[in-house]
């Protein structure tokens, strides 16, 4: 038998290599639900967009933003969320595995914990889980391009899914609906929605079209005699804004400053 006193910690620890993320870059941790196609079927999510399920995702994201002060912005759509850490964050000494695992496990436990608040009459039938990765973006322009890419993805998927499910709900089989939409452009999908279903795509709920952004916003302090006028406090907001437009980043310059 091995004498436990002979195990040298320094020797064992020497096998542990930390994957440190590049300093002075914006770290994005993106989580994504594993097999949510099935999870959303089993839990009978409304297709193509279950509003309560999206609100549940948003509230789990708010909890993550509240817990980790270094998260300056996050963007979510469908079963995914991207969390952006400030450029000079030193959270977990920028060790990727610790950062990613802490964020994704907190998100998952909040999702499960809050399930009953959003679905009081729907049993959670099995345990959801999420995967996650960390990517570094070296400039605020590239970071904005990353976020724009996720919102473009949201837009394209939503347009496809909305058209697809309208066709299915109107009696087409899934493969027929797929055939109908194959190779169509955004404009044609909008025309199909307008002509066949009298739906103006641009009037659909903004959360479905633009996804959700969670961030600390500045808010004028409540008028309080004791307080100095003009002081700001920050609060977490959930908004559905166009983050592709550069004007958003200009108006909210404090996020990336
Ligand atoms: P993977 O494990 O590779 O991520 P996945 O099944 O989760 O596979 P995704 O590409 O992540 O696939 O897509 C998520 C799926 O979850 C969507 O296709 C959609 O059907 C479903 N989904 C997620 N959120 C909602 C929602 N709010 N309302 C309806 N369906 C949703
Ligand atoms: P960090 O976030 O750095 O890991 P920590 O508070 O989790 O900080 P650890 O070194 O991981 O610190 O130690 C875990 C602590 O949790 C222990 O100090 C102990 O007090 C407590 N703990 C964990 N499991 C048990 C248990 N089964 N019974 C009693 N206390 C426990
Ligand atoms: Mg995935
Ligand atoms: Mg997924
Ligand atoms: Mg996904």
Automatic annotation (TrEMBL):
Residue span, Thg1 C-terminal domain: 142-244
Coiled coil: none
Subcellular location(s) of the protein: Nucleus, Nucleoplasm
Signal peptide span: none
Domain tRNAHis guanylyltransferase catalytic: from-to ranges: 10-138
Purpose of the protein: Adds a GMP to the 5'-end of tRNA(His) after transcription and RNase P cleavage.
Family per similarity comment: Belongs to the tRNA(His) guanylyltransferase family.
Protein name, UniProt field: tRNA(His) guanylyltransferase
């Amino acid at each position: 038998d091995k004498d436990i006193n002979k195990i040298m910690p320094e020797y064992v620890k020497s096998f542990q290599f930390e994957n440190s993320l590049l300093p002075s870059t914006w770290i994005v941790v993106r989580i994504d639900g594993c097999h949510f196609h099935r999870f959303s079927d089993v839990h009978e999510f409304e297709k193509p967009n279950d509003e309560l399920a999206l609100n549940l995702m948003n509230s789990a994201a708010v909890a993550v933003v509240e817990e980790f002060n270094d998260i300056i912005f996050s963007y979510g759509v469908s079963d995914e969320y991207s969390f952006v850490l400030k450029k000079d964050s030193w959270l977990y000494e920028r060790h990727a595995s610790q950062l990613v695992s802490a964020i994704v496990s907190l998100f998952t436990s909040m999702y499960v914990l809050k399930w009953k608040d959003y679905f009081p009459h729907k049993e959670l039938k099995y345990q959801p889980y999420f995967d996650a990765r960390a990517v570094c973006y070296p400039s605020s322009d590239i970071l904005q391009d990353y976020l724009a890419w996720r919102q473009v993805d949201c837009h394209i998927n939503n347009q496809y899914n909305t058209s697809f499910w309208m066709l299915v709900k109107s009696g087409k089989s899934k493969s027929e609906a797929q055939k109908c939409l194959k190779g169509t452009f955004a404009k044609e999908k909008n025309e199909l929605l307008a002509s066949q279903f009298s739906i103006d795509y641009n009037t659909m709920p903004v959360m479905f079209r633009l996804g959700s952004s969670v961030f600390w916003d500045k808010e004028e302090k409540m008028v309080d005699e004791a307080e100095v006028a003009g002081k700001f406090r920050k609060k977490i907001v959930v908004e559905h804004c166009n983050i592709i437009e550069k004007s958003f980043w200009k108006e909210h310059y404090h996020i990336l400053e």
